[in-house]
Design brief:
Number of strands: 11
Oligomer: single chain
Strand content: 5-15%
Number of domains: 2
Number of helices: 12
Shape: globular
Largest sheet: 11 strands, mixed
Structural class: alpha/beta
Amino acid sequence: MVRRDSSQTPRTTSRRPFLALAGAAVAGTTGIAGCLGDENGNGSGNGGSDDGGNGGGNGGSDDGGNGNGDAGGTTVADAEPLASPVDPSGVSWDDLGDLEGDITVYSGRTRDQIDLVFEELENEYDGLEIHRNYDDNDVQVNQLVQEGDATPADVFYSQDPGALGAVHDEGLVQELPEDVVDTVPESYREPGGHWTGVSGRVRSIMYNEDRLDETPFDSWDELPTDIFAYAEDDRFKGIISTRPNSGTFRGFIQAMVDLEGEEATRQWVRDFMDQDPQLFSGGSSQAAAVEQGGDDDPIIGLGNSYYAARLVNEDPDSPIRVTFTEDDPGSLFSVAGVAATNSVEDPELVAEFVRHLVAVEGQEFMMDANGEFPVVEGVDYVGPLPSPDELNSPTFDLSEFDMELQEASELLEDEGMMPL
């Protein structure tokens, strides 16, 4: 087994290209477009607090014990739309209220994944300034816990439902407006409305279509639609890779435990490790290794589809492709989402900010610039991948993820996949 650091040039053994449309249960070969960003969250924090600070409030708590207080006595949930509310049919930015003022975002997503969205909003509204603080999810959650009601953060933005669940469990976030909650399907948000998904991603199988002759396969159509085959089939030995240190991978493991049982999951990890996989510490570096196709690069990778999508968006001639397993944890659909802290200074601004993320332009921007999926039913997915409705992903309650995904983390450590 080769453990790879994201700063290193990844190596390959045998690689094959393949991109399939799952959902129709057919393995096809398609190109993918549009996505940038890594999930290792190693951004540097810049501008963590606004000059006024955020006062903690003494608002009432909901039935889950999460305080909804803010300095002015008005909660985000009570903040009426400044213009039109959002709804599942899709509402345009033109119909929403203007964004004016300062807002501080603690982000577990990296700068290259979402800064373009923030820049677009600041370009749209001259009076808006978004203070960004980028760091790992666990760092951001710990910071929010330490700061409590004195945090300067108005919004926590994360690609990990477990991290969003953690700040909710700590009582650090408040309910979002009813129109926002009703806009996003319940499977993509916390049932009580304390956080909501704003974009989606799906686990996939990445491969380099130019390297079929370096594999034991006669056609990329032979790639399995069962995630267990990638650990059990000897044809993947020495040519496969993954990134086990991400929250998304641990979520995949937790979903496998819940759907298939702990012993079956442990056996999958053991079998996968017997394939002599390359283990990466960054999703972007893994996808780049699959794409570049050098002698020391992996040919196949388990990872989020949008990493491959961004490479094809940058270079339409890229040989990287993706396919999907069917109705198992290997095609788990997950979300990146936001939560409003209890210390919000301007509830109307924060409420309207979140409305912009789930409005048509916010959804389309994440789709076009970052290769992700919309989470609003009225916004159609446009791109070469199957739409969420076409993907045969398993049904799973994302709000059940806990921050440390402790069960999954301990399992990976027990079976020798972690730490890297």
